[in-house]
C-alpha cells in the first residue's frame, strides 16, 4: 500500500506523459531514408554543382580571352572589358566556393583558385618578388612550382586593378603574368568540371550492394551510403555561413564605420566584396531549397519540422533583401548606414547558422569536424 501523499503516482503519470510525447514526436519526426538522400544527391549534382562549375569554366574562358586581348591591344576599353570579365568569373567562383570537397580539393586547387584570407600578406610579397623578374616563363612548369598565392583570383585582381595600370603595357611582366594566371584559372576550372563526372558516379554508387562489373568501381567506392555523401553537401550548406560572417563581414567591419578596415575584405580592389557575399548566400539558398523534385527544405518538412524549414527560407530571403540594399563599397568608404546594415546581416547569419544546425539534427546528419574549429 502506498503511503498517504506519496508522489509515486504523480511521477509515474509524468513519466508516461513524457514517453507518450516522445512516441508522438518519433512518429511525426523521421529522418530521411537512404533512398531520399540518393535522390537529393542526384538533384544537387545535376541542378546545382555541375551547372555552377560549367558557369565558372565558361566565364573564366571569357576572362582569359579578354586578358589576351588587353595585352595584345592595351587601351582603356580593353582594360575595362578585362576587369568586367574578371568580376563575372570571380562571381562564378563565389557561387561554387562553398563546395569544399571532391575534385576542387585535389592538389589544393580550392586554395589555388583563391588564397584568402591571406593573414601574412603572402600574396603581396610573392607577387612583388616575381614582378622583379625579366626572363620568367609563366608556363605549366611555373605553375607547378609557384606559390598558391600566385595562381588565382586574388593575384589577378592585384594586377588588373592596380592604380599604376602597368598591365596596359604589353611588354610589362604584369601583362604576361596576368594572362597566364587567367588561363591557369580557366584550365583549373575545366579540370574540376571534368572530374566531377567521376565524383558524381561515386556518389551515385553509394549504398549499392552489387557494384558494376568493371574493376575500377569494384575496387573503389568513395561513399558507403547515400547519407554519407549527403553529409558532404550538408557541410557545404552549413559551414560556410560562419566563415562568411567571421571573415567576410566582422573582421573588415570592426566595431564602427570609423574603425572599419575594409582592406581586410575579400575583394576590395575590384569593389566586389559585398557582391561576393551576395553570390555566396544565393548559392547556399539554392542548395537549401532550389532543387527538384526534392530539396533539403522538403526533407526537413517531411521530417516534421515545417516551422524551421520555412524559417530558414525566410531568413535567406531577408538576408538577400538587406544585401541588395547595400551598394558596392567604393574607395574603402564604409558609411555608418552601410556598416549598420552589414552588422545586421551578421546577426542574421548567426541566426541562420543556428537554424541550419538544428535542421541537421532533425535530419540526423552529423557534420563532424569543422576545419575552421580553432581558428
TrEMBL record:
Q: Which residues form a coiled coil?
A: none
Q: Which CDD domains match?
A: Imelysin-like_IPPA (cd14659)
Q: Does the keyword Flavoprotein apply?
A: no
Give any Pfam family that matches. Answer: Peptidase_M75
Looking at the keywords, is Signal present? yes
Q: Which residues form the signal peptide?
A: 1-26
Question: Per the database record, which ranges form the Imelysin-like domain?
Answer: 50-353
Provide this UniProt record's keywords sorted from A to Z: Signal
Q: Which GO cellular component terms, listed alphabetically, does the Swiss-Prot or TrEMBL entry include? A: cell envelope
Question: Which coarse location class applies to the principal site listed for this UniProt protein?
Answer: other
Location in the cell reads:
Cell envelope
What this protein is called in its record is Imelysin-like domain-containing protein
